[in-house]
Amino acid sequence: MNFIISILFSGIVVSVLVLIPWVGVAAFDLRFLFGVVVPYLAMAVFFIGMVARVIGWGRSPVPFRIPTTAGQQFSLPWIKYSKIESPKGNGGVIIRMLFEVLLFRSLFRNTRLEYRRLANGPKLDYEWEKWLWLAALMFHYSFLVIFLRHFRFFMEPIPGFVHILEKLDGFLQLGVLPVSGLNVPSVFLTDMLLMLALTYLFLRRIYIPQTRYISLPADYFPLFLILALGLTGILMRYFIRVDITAVKTLALGLFTFKPTVPEGIGVIFFIHLFLISMLIAYFPFSKLVHMAGVFLSPTRNLANNSRMKRHINPWDYPVKVHTYEEYEEEFRELMIQAGLPVEKQPEKVEEQSEETGEKE
Amino acid sequence: MAQTPKPEELAKIEHSPPLMEGWMDRPVEIREGFYCYGAKGKNLAAVGMPNPRDWNPADEDWKLPEDWKEIVLDGFKDRLDRFRSFKLFMDICVRCGACADKCHFFIGSGDPKNMPVLRAELFRSVYRKRFTTAGKLFGKLAGARDLEYNVLKEWWYYLYQCTECRRCSLFCPYGIDTAEITIIGRELTNLLGLNTDWIQAPVANCYRTGNHLGIQPHAYKDMIDFFVDEIEEVTGVRVNPSFNRKGAEILFITPSGDVFADPGTYTAMGYLMLFHYLESMGLDITWSTYASEGGNFGFFTSHEMAKRLNAKMYAEAKRLGVKWILGGECGHMWRVVHQYMDTFNGPPDFLEEPVSPITGTKFENAKGTKMVHITEFTADLIKHNKLKLDPSRNDNLVLTYHDSCNTARGMGIFEEPRYVIKNVCNNFYEMPSGTIREQTFCCGSGAGLNAGENMELRMRGGLPRANAVQHVHEKHGVNMMACICAIDRAALTTLMEYWVPEVQICGVHELVGNALILDGEKDRTTDLRGEPLPGMEDMEEEEDV
After folding, report:
1. How many domains does chain B have?
2. Touching check for A107 and chain B: CB below 8 Å?
3. Whose CB has fewer CB within 10 Å in chain A, the N or C terminal residue?
4. What is the ipTM of this complex?
């Protein structure tokens, strides 16, 4: 299966996911199904699925302490050790994990191989390459801010942090049209950044030969799904306006477990809601579980202290070893000839075995 | 044996995989020069491995048991339940590709299945098919494929093209460690008797004789006695090591490569000289012929085999009644000692927290395992001014230092060896920053790949390291690279001969041995290799005349 088939397949699936609520609401008026039932089901799948996932990982033990050490170990008192990259205790591990989860520390290390063949042989360079890190950071933080901004719909009164976020996010005060008084809301920076980052991540995936080769439909599908989700959100906010009050009534109803579907909400909203439902339902079964998995990664969340503190392997079992006695038994003559000390002299061995024989 | 291409030929590397092809559509091709011979039946049987028989990877038929598929899949399931790492790493990869161009084997070969991500996908695809709902339902569309004979061969071919160096795990945003996948994957192949002989023979040897090379106790002592003569020839001082001596304070264990393979032998001489020097200051140390191997090829076979071979260290320490263990320069030995030994075979409650008998320094970082790395020990000696050193005796050398993967990313020992080197040598230059310390490149021959029949693979895998050496060779005139790994010392020597013949390889304690001023020594004219010391070149010639 080549990349074109993968892209086509993912694109078709996302298109179908857009069509389903469109047809369902516009043609069959299944507003309760798409406004209440599907979101609730999706949330249930998400929570149960994620909990099951994490429990599943948790049930497999960590038999060995295998941190990837990315800095100087703690050893002699006069050697400065790397408290974060090679932590010796839990404090350092927590900071290491915070750097990893909040700032994508490892991805920040990324380089790009530059391979050239010169007259005197090959030349390898490892070039600056922070774009992936930047796009990943942009994507995740934009998504987070957008998610938090949505609390405007989930809560009444609107929490203070939403106002602050909206203010910060809209600080550019850009209008969609350079005309005032049209009642078009200011553009949120994160909306643009999210789309930009997603587009970059997609183009990068097909542009770089290696990533193109390794990509599965499961890599294109979430990109397309989130692109579609963002697009419907942007359309709704700036272009195809929906009745915000009605939307909020529906969203509040969902979150307070008193679901209602008010009249007059445009189809575009149901498409948006269906896509987010699909995204969260897909979450536990996909690579998106890295969100939870990263916290459990044994190469990152363990301290580099295995020579100080014994790590217990819960399934440890005794193994067959070749004992010194067996070793000496085989080589005793040679060892004595070479002047190596032995536990038993050959004559004594015979005597001892005779003695034990008598006792028995 | 396959002919290894010339460097100019080998350097023609294509890093772009085919445009319109999916990787699953390309069946594995087992190429000569890239794999090691199959494990011999007698070596498999010697340690009770399953399916002992002679077999050849180039043959169609690998002589597997009837139910091989069941065995592998049961083993797979069992390891998903026993290793969180394995289970997690099957699930959370997003295929961002950050690891792709970080692997020395991909850089040197361009084979896309040597990209760490794809190496792991070889396993994930089967995992999805057999252990996930989506994979069962949607098959290829979900990136799933079933385990077939050819897939098993593909696994094998690439499992033994990974040196478990963990460079990819450093760059992975989730810390996915290909070494874990390789280690566990190799365990699965070993359920079917599919080890390579280059790993299995040392395992069998080590189990019986105590070391990989199968050297029996008397021969081991002979070899060290030979070093004693050599040292006397160079320095005029006769050192007096002891073996299997009960009641010694410290047990010394080093890889057998230091005792039997140049240039590691010069490092072994360095140890002997250092111990002799410290004897009068209170060092009470013994070598062992039973625990005569620091390395552990069991670690390249299975966790269980690693534990079986590692057990000798503590067993011998207990039998001899020593207080603690000092470990020589070795890479994977230290991965095992640092991250596994106490868990495998501890707790060593019959030992004491290591204290340097010379400086009184407590090695707090080793208080659990009770095993100290020799560069930690020596760095502490130098810091306390306990060693009389003449670094000018290494002035004919312009040095660089290669961080071994295992001690770098599985231990974090960076400053200790550098501190020692800078105190025993005057000319030291680092290689470029993306190729040292935690980002160091593998020698290309670790994890049991330093055989002869897979030379093309080794020279390809070593290219990134060699290229960084070439850089400092051209820029600073570097002619010697130090390292703290016995496999490095053997493998990098071959690698340098191929890519940068002007550069030689040494251990850190060879340099120590050269610089160390022994009591009562004669005026040295040569270093431990018998090469004239700086300023003594003429004398050698005169002698020759």
Report:
1. 3
2. yes
3. C
4. 0.95
Span B46-69, average pLDDT: 97
Same domain, A223 and A274: yes
Per-residue pLDDT for A201 more than 90? yes
Q: Are B403 and B378 part of one and the same domain?
A: no
| Final residue before a domain boundary, out of A243, A278, A296 | A296
Distance CA A281, CA A275 (A): 10
The Cα A196–Cα B54 span in angstroms is 58
Segment B122-168, tens digit of pLDDT: 999 999 999 999 999 999 999 999 999 999 999 999 999 999 999 99
- Mapped to the 3 state alphabet, what secondary structure does B300-340 carry? HCCHHHHHHHHHHHHHHHHHHCCCEEEECCCHHHHHHHHHH
User: Distance, in angstroms, between A256 CA and closest chain B CA?
Assistant: 33
Instruction: Please give the residue range of the domain that contains residue A339.
Output: 324-359
- Does residue A350 register a pLDDT over 80? no
Identity of the residue in A60, A69, A311 whose CB atom sits nearest the CB atom of B82: A60
Do residue A291 and residue A328 come from a single domain?
Answer: no
pLDDT, tens only, A12-49:
999 999 999 999 999 999 999 999 999 999 999 999 99
Minimal Cβ distance to B7: which of A59, A65, A121 = A121
Cβ of A298 and B85 within 8 Å? yes
A318 and B CB contact within 8 Å: no
Is the per-residue pLDDT at B399 higher than 60?
A: yes
Measured CA to CA, the distance from residue B336 to residue B356 in angstroms comes to 23
Is A194 a member of any domain?
yes
Q: Does A296 contact chain B (CB < 8 Å)?
A: yes
Instruction: Indicate if B138 and B52 belong to the same structural domain.
Output: yes
In a domain, B101, yes or no: yes
Residue of B nearest to A7 (CA): B141
User: At what angle are helices B303-320 and B178-190 packed, to 10 degrees?
Assistant: 90
Report the chain B residue with the minimal C-alpha distance to residue A58.
B84
Interface residue B112 vs chain A (CB under 8 A): yes
Please identify, among B162, B179, B195, the residue that sits at the C-terminal boundary of a domain: B195
Residues 6+ apart with CB under 8 A from A336: A342, A345, A346
B 38-97 residues with CB < 8 A to A = 48, 80-88, 91-97
- Could you read off the pLDDT of B9-55 as tens digits, one per residue? 999 999 999 999 899 999 999 999 999 999 999 999 999 999 999 99
Largest CA distance in chain A: 112
Residue A248 and residue A209 in one domain? yes
Which of A69, A226, A310, A313 is best to mutate for the B interface (most B CBs within 10 A)? A69
Q: How many domains is chain A built from?
A: 2
How many Å is the Cα radius of gyration of chain A? 31
Contact A214 B208 (CB under 8 A): no
* CB-based contact, A124 to chain B, within 8 Å: yes
| Contact status, residue A236 vs residue A184, Cβ threshold 8 Å | no
Please tell me whether residues B45 and B174 are part of one structural domain: yes
Interval B457-505: pLDDT, tens: 999 999 999 999 999 999 999 999 999 999 999 999 999 999 999 999 9
Q: Do A283 and A343 fall within a single domain?
A: no
Question: Which domain-ending residue is among B365, B383, B401?
Answer: B383
- The string over A192-210, giving b where at least 16 C-beta atoms fall within 10 Å of a residue's C-beta and e elsewhere, is ebbbebbebbbebbeebbb
Band (B541; pLDDT cuts 50, 70, 90): low
